[in-house]
């Protein structure tokens, strides 16, 4: 995904979030008796229980935006991932489930679990501002949004808000990368070699330095780079690095960056 496309997408997401938050505030004042918007306690267990109930009620579809800021403990233990993905297995048979998440929150174990399922969860990855949304049957949604006023959790049944969430989801989904999409560079040795090249590209290492460290000629190195770019569908080295990061081909924090930046 090119830089300008990411900027445009993030702008659209932020505008949509602002619209949703303002409409939530408006409808809370106007329709409290109609129960079109129900405020949910922000306690994790309460939110989890509410989400689980909506998942079990689904008849046709569940669409999820999973883009919260993970806590340090989440990153170390990933306990919340295991609990949250377990909720989806409570959905009735035949319900279509789509999950949008970020590279940071992508759960590789959950992606692998889908491979052997008859009706797998469709998972795509994109960079998104923090937002949690569970949309069920296009008729109700659970939204957890961060704002200047703090975290807000609501169950929403307002048609305009549901339409905004649907449009937001679809606009991200069509450009997001499929989770688990992996490019086969050959055998294990060639795959490891390709990842080293991707790290050099990510670090901005010159072709001459990279070729020397890999003990290949500059011409051979450039041929490898061209091949990797082709497999990633990238038109530039920068795009190759962005796409590789999106697809999880590069670790979030490389152990040690190569020497010889140029």
According to CATH, what is the class of the largest domain? Alpha Beta
Strand content: 15-25%
**CATH-level-4 superfamily name of the largest domain:** Endonuclease Chain A
How many DSSP E strands?
A: 8
Q: What string, H for helix and E for strand, traces the elements in order?
A: HEHEHHEHEEEEHEHHHH
Query: Helical residue percent?
Result: 40-55%
Q: So how many helices?
A: 10
Question: Which value, in Å, is the CA radius of gyration?
Answer: 21 Å
Domain count: the total is 2
Biggest β-sheet strands, sense, barrel: 8 strands, mixed
CATH architecture of the largest domain: 2-Layer Sandwich
- Overall shape: it is elongated
End-to-end CA span: 25 Å
Mean pLDDT: 77
Low-confidence stretches: 1-5, 252-262
Query: Structural class, from secondary structure content?
Result: alpha+beta
Provide the spatial order of strands within the biggest beta sheet.
1-7-6-5-2-3-4-8
**CATH topology category name of the largest domain:** Endonuclease, Chain A
InterPro entries: Sig_transdc_resp-reg_C-effctor, TrmB-like, Tscrpt_reg_LuxR_C, WH-like_DNA-bd_sf
GO molecular function, one term: DNA binding
